[in-house]
Design goal:
The complex is a heterodimer of chains A (372) and B (208). Chain A has 372 residues and is α/β, with parallel strands linked by helices. Chain A has one domain. Chain A contains 12 helices and 11 strands. Chain A has an 8-stranded mixed sheet, sandwiched between helices. The longest helix of chain A has 21 residues. The radius of gyration of chain A is 24 Å and the shape is globular. Chain B has a domain of 99 residues. In chain B, α1 runs parallel beside α4 and α3 packs antiparallel against α4. The chains are: A alpha/beta (372), B mainly alpha (208). The interface between A and B is large, with 49 and 54 residues.
């Protein structure tokens, strides 16, 4: 609150208040209101995610690190609407369930990241059996949906965080569940660290592994992923024609433990806003890469939006944030070990009932609703 | 400057060094809190027990079904164990080298930091900054060591499971049928049947 200057030199009293000119009071109030307005606008303005009559059956998904694990989860659970996926430095679906004598978090942080040997890495045959069982019982979509899909997989040869030993099993997993080998593009020849790759010389050097985990390796990985999933795309646009949408993500969250942010982002090219039914591509950031940590670097500077602009694709960027209480997610990772169901010995983070997957599916469904 | 005067000015570098140490202390406190939050021994034990029980139940494994003298399986198990031990030793060596490198560099870091300091406060500030860097390096080394221990423990448990599975009679039949795949562990359990979300998850506004 502003302190109003008193005519008597500084001391305000009941009597003095009566003496303050009305103009000063109105000015003070106006300034106060202006400050309150400015403070409110300092926080991001979000809107309700609009409906764009998107072509839901051409949905695809990609992500880095924990975002890559989440990519596998979203892709496998809702394969009925999926046409492909891009996994950058991520392990196979259900990886944290590889070895029964380890807890889920132990598997997630050892087996699924940097195992001692290949034989103690992801237990792919078991994961495939488990996935088949889940599909048979209706917890995830049928595996036959995968037969006409296209998968892009990447592992940097300098990546010691999620090693090539682990990512090799991602390819084996998808081959085993029915994705044709000819439809899988697996690149492990680039000397990249643990990062998403761009062709931007302001990003970190290719071989490094450091925040914000976006490295310049002289090619736009976003374009490579999208070109593999949707063959025949145009090159990325030079400029964006629309603004990035900041929308209210909390609307889609029905659990207190998702660790998801209140705000998420989307990019919708003009053609998709004005009548065209466009495919949706969901983009998952990695740990410590949410907007709360690195701002717009992932959702605005990894090249996805320029591809969207050139090819009439809708980009959806769900967001997760660090949490040091419950749920315990200090690095701001997507859930691939069960933190979103704290206290449960058998958490469900991997079926259509998983809290994060439910929320994201609702966002996709909203985008696909008819325009109001 | 009068050393006994309470109004003696503090060198900006010393203030900054104190601030850095204060930030580090807060950060360490936060890390300790996170560590205690992560320790859930009861839940972990229940989780492992359930996973193992489900695994044994689905596979029908019993001690009697295990062919302890199957030569091919024993040879593979021994081979994998040797690989694990060699890999563990290599990672432990890497950790030792890191510690040694950090230790050997401490004296040099402190000496270099004190160069250019012209007042006692600046000397103190330089020492504090160098010490903080050294502490952070040791902390990173300890984290790496802890990670390595976890990887080794996880690997041995995985090896044990693989070995028991490969020695079981049922696994022998499956291995013969799918010779191109490595030995698989027992079938896992299904998730608990879905309950309506309004009942299974607390309300967002409950403040839980």
């Amino acid at each position: 609150m502003l302190s109003l200057p008193a005519r008597n030199g500084g001391r305000l009293s009941h009597g003095t208040m009566k003496q303050i000119p009305g103009t000063r009071i109105r000015t003070g109030l106006a300034v106060t209101l202006l400050l309150a307005f400015a403070t409110a606008h300092a926080q991001e303005q979000t809107i309700k995610l609009p409906a764009y009559d998107a072509d839901i059956h051409k949905t695809s998904v990609s992500g880095l690190s924990s975002g890559a694990f989440m990519t596998s989860q979203l892709y496998m659970v809702f394969s009925d609407i999926m046409t492909g996926a891009g996994i950058v430095a991520g392990g196979p679906y259900l990886c944290a369930k590889s070895w029964a004598a380890n807890t889920l978090v132990q598997n997630a942080t050892t087996t699924c990241m940097n195992p001692l040997t290949a034989s103690t890495g992801p237990n792919t045959p078991v994961l495939v059996k488990h996935a088949a069982l889940l599909a048979d019982y209706g917890y995830i979509d049928p595996l036959k949906n995968l037969q006409d899909d296209r998968i892009y997989i990447f592992s940097g040869s300098r990546d010691k965080t999620v090693t090539t030993t682990v990512v090799n099993q991602t390819r084996e997993f998808f081959k085993s569940v029915g994705v044709p080998e000819a439809s899988i593009q697996y690149n492990k020849s680039i000397a990249a660290g643990h990062a998403f790759v761009t062709d931007n010389d302001t990003d970190a050097a290719c071989a490094l592994t450091q925040p914000p985990y976006i490295n310049d390796c002289d090619f736009e990985q976003s374009a490579t992923i999208l070109n593999h999933i949707y063959p025949g795309l145009k090159p990325p646009a030079a400029q964006l024609g629309s603004a990035i949408i900041a929308f209210d993500q909390s609307e889609f969250i029905d659990s207190a433990y998702t660790s998801m942010s209140d705000t998420a982002y989307a990019y919708v090219p003009a053609a998709c806003q004005n009548g065209k039914s466009c495919p949706i591509h969901v983009v998952f950031h990695g740990c410590k890469q949410g907007a709360q940590v690195i701002g717009d670097k992932y959702y605005a500077q990894t090249g996805y939006n320029r591809m969207a602009e050139a090819n009439d694709l809708i980009m959806l960027y769900p967001q997760v944030q660090p949490s040091t209480t419950t749920p315990l997610n200090p690095e701001g990772c997507w859930d691939f070990w069960g933190y979103s169901s704290p206290g449960k010995p058998d958490p469900d983070y991997y079926t259509r009932n998983a809290p994060q997957l439910r929320a994201i599916h609702k966002m996709i469904t909203r985008l696909a609703e008819p325009r109001s | 400057m009068d050393a006994v005067t309470s109004n003696a000015p503090i060198d900006p570098k010393l203030s900054e060094a104190l601030r850095h140490w204060n930030d580090y202390a807060n950060e360490s406190g936060q890390n300790v809190r996170v560590l205690f939050e992560a320790m859930t021994p009861v839940k972990d034990s229940l989780q492992i027990a359930q996973q193992i029980m489900d695994s044994v139940q689905h596979s029908g494994w019993t001690p009697g079904s295990t062919h302890w003298m199957k030569p091919s399986a024993l040879f593979s198990a021994y081979q994998e164990l040797t690989e694990i031990q060699l890999a563990a030793q290599e990672r432990e060596n890497d950790c030792c080298i890191r510690f040694l490198t950090t230790t050997l560099g401490t004296g040099k870091q402190v000496a270099e930091a004190m160069q250019g300091a012209s007042t006692p406060q600046q000397v103190l500030a330089s020492c504090m900054e160098a010490s903080l860097n050294i502490v952070r390096q040791y902390q990173a080394d300890i984290s790496e060591q802890a990670e390595t221990f976890s990887q080794i423990q996880s690997a041995y448990k995985a090896w044990l499971q693989r070995t028991l599975d490969s020695l079981s009679s049922r696994q022998a039949e499956e291995t013969a049928a799918s010779a191109s795949l490595p030995p698989a562990a027992s079938e896992p359990s299904l998730p608990v049947p879905a309950t309506p979300t309004a009942q299974s998850e607390p309300e967002k506004d409950s403040g839980v």
